[in-house]
Amino acid sequence: MKLLTFKGGIHPPYKKEYSEKKAIEIAKSPKVVYIPLQQHIGAPAKEIVKVGDLVKVGQKIGEQQGFVSCNVHSSVSGKVIAIKEHELAGGRGTCIVIENDFKEQIHESIKPKGNLEDLSKEEIVSIIKEAGIVGMGGATFPTHVKLSPPPDKKIDTVILNGAECEPYLTADHRLMLENPEDVVYGLKVLMKSLNVSKGYIGIEVNKPDAISAIEKEAQKYDDIEVVGLEVKYPQGAEKQLIYACTKREVPSGGLPMDAGAVVNNVGTAAQIAKTIKTGMPLIERITTVTGSCINEPKNLVTKVGTLVSEIIDQCGGFKEDKIVGKVIMGGPMMGLAQYTIDIPTNKGTSGILCLDDEESKTPKPQNCLRCGKCLTVCPAFLQPLYISAYSLKNDFESAERYRALDCIECGSCSFVCPARRPLLQSVRNAKREIISNRRKESAKK
Ligand code: SF4
Ligand code: SF4
């Protein structure tokens, strides 16, 4: 097997040992779910149910608004008891609150979609769109949009991301090990939807059991190649994965389709397979619950809309001898720290990471030492020290000249900086300001 990688990157402590050997379990169904209308990149869905309505599992309860948006479905059967604002992982937003009747009644619309051979490209994209499927690695970009490239973009490669390079997270690892059939079938669906004859599945070589499970399944097809990836962060980032698999570079400011590739997470592929085979939309996902403060780390299939506090309880709660410092939705590098655990999970909740107070401390930043380490590791070949310095001086024009918008927000620069400079935060802030200024400029025209 070839061992592929990209230029730059870091080797953080992986800490996968908490949960990598834990087989996937189904979480208990919650009494109440809080299903956000915004669980994806793009416009929020619009509710199509009202308080008092009875709903079933898989029933559409939120309709996508515009092309870059997603449908939302009920993860339980029961009664809509409120449609209201609630705390979410990234701020506040509207949720459809459903009281579970525990009857698990499946909605009448949920039916298998037929044989893949009989489905056209257009039908596949329409099924994925209707099912509200998003990038399940955490990015939550609507999958039907990725599968609808403009006619002038020639796509010849589909890549599945099985790197799971974020420390602590093991949901994708367990999925590949326990359900390789759906992962590979999902890739075949994606390849057909894009009329592509070459598929790759990239997996970091610290998961040899997953590689052999996926290889065994992929052997059935001569157009799928399983590639072993060097263990390095951010190996699973789209541009870095495309380079590792194809040696093609996505141009500055460009998208994967500019390199002829579409990248999806292995979890997304498995969900696509499930939707084609059973008709069930995206209403649940595997979430790794992990970290030093959790009594029983697990890989749990959780229904979208379950409160994080309930999931933590199902994992034995917090350890009594630990002081919880941070609860992060996602992994430690790209996840978001939360100030409450009374927030619901969503389609992108790959992990719930609970760190103690020692692990959560943020050291005081010192002056830049001009050591150049941040330049060496940046996988986007940026100069984080300069972008950060301009950002901190509110000189966003200069930050833009230094290609701040090409930052993939991986946090590698902050991780290696011996002066503990807040590089990621300041580069991220520069990106936000540049995009906001561009919007203001185009509104004036
Ligand atoms: S500048 Fe952006 S892409 Fe480069 S290392 Fe820092 S966070 Fe990652
Ligand atoms: S790694 Fe930190 S100290 Fe070194 S050059 Fe970059 S910002 Fe300066």
UniProtKB/TrEMBL annotation:
GO process terms (BP): electron transport chain
EC number: 7.-.-.-
Positions with a binding annotation for [4Fe-4S] cluster 1: C368, C371, C374, C417
Domain 4Fe-4S ferredoxin-type: 359-390, 397-427
This protein's record includes keyword ATP-binding: no
Name the UniProt record assigns to this protein: Ion-translocating oxidoreductase complex subunit C
Keywords from the UniProt entry: 4Fe-4S, Cell membrane, Electron transport, Iron, Iron-sulfur, Membrane, Metal-binding, Repeat, Translocase, Transport
Subcellular location(s) per record: Cell membrane
